[in-house]
Amino acid sequence: MTSIYAKAGAFLLAILLVFGALYGAYHHGETLANTEWQAKWDAEVATQALAKAKAEEDARAEELRRINSNQQAQAHAIQSTAVAQTDAAAAAVSTGSVQLAAAKLAAGPSSCTGHSTAATGSPTTNHAAMVLSDLLTRADKRAADLASLADRSRIAGLACEASYDGLTANQK
C-alpha cells in the first residue's frame, strides 16, 4: 500500500513541480511585459513633459511678441498724436493771424460807402464785415475742432489696426 501512496505522492509532486514551473514562467513573462509597458509609459510621460515645456515656451514667446507689438502700436499712436497736436498748434497760429486781419478789416472804414463824400463806411457795411469776420472765426474754430477729432479718430483707428495685426500675425 505504501507504494500506491508513494506513487500518488510522487505524481502529485511532479504535477506541483510542473504547475510551479508554469506559474514561474507566467510570472516571469508578466513581469517582463509590465517592465516593458512601464518603460514605454515613462518614455511617453517624458515626451509629453518635453512637449508641454516647449508649448509653454512658445506661448510665452508669442505673448511677449504680442505685448511688444501692442506697445509699439501705442508708441506710434502717441508719436502721431504729438505730431497732430503740433500741426494743429501751427494751424491755429496761422489762423489767428488771418482772423486778426479779418477783424481789422471789419473794424476799419469800408471802401464801399453809401455817399461819395462820406469818409467812413456805412453802419451796414461795417456790420456785414463784422458778421463775416465772426463767421470766419467760428467756421475756423469748428474746422479746427473737426480736424482734431478726425486726427484723433484716424490715429486711434490705425493704432487699433496695428494692435490687431500684431495679435493675429501668426494666425494668418
Description:
This protein is an all-alpha fold and 172 residues long. It is 88% helix and 0% strand. The longest helix has 106 residues, at 2-107. The protein has one domain (2-171). Helix 1 (2-107) packs antiparallel against helix 2 (123-167).
Evaluate the radius of gyration.
48 Å
Q: What's the total helix number?
A: 2
Please state the structural category. Answer: mainly alpha
Estimate what percentage of residues fall within beta strands.
Answer: under 5%
Determine the fraction of residues in helical runs and give it as a percent range.
over 70%
Number of domains: 1
**SSE ordering:** HH
Mean pLDDT: 85
Characterize the overall form. Answer: rod-shaped
- Largest sheet properties: none
Number of strands: 0
Unreliable segments (pLDDT under 50, ≥5 consecutive)? none
What's the end-to-end separation, in Å?
A: 94 Å
List keywords for this structure.
single chain, 172 residues, mainly alpha, 88% helix
Layout of SSEs?
Elements: H1 2-107, H2 123-167
Helix pairs in contact: 1-2
Concise account of the structure shown:
The chain is an all-alpha fold. Helix content is 88%, strand content 0%.
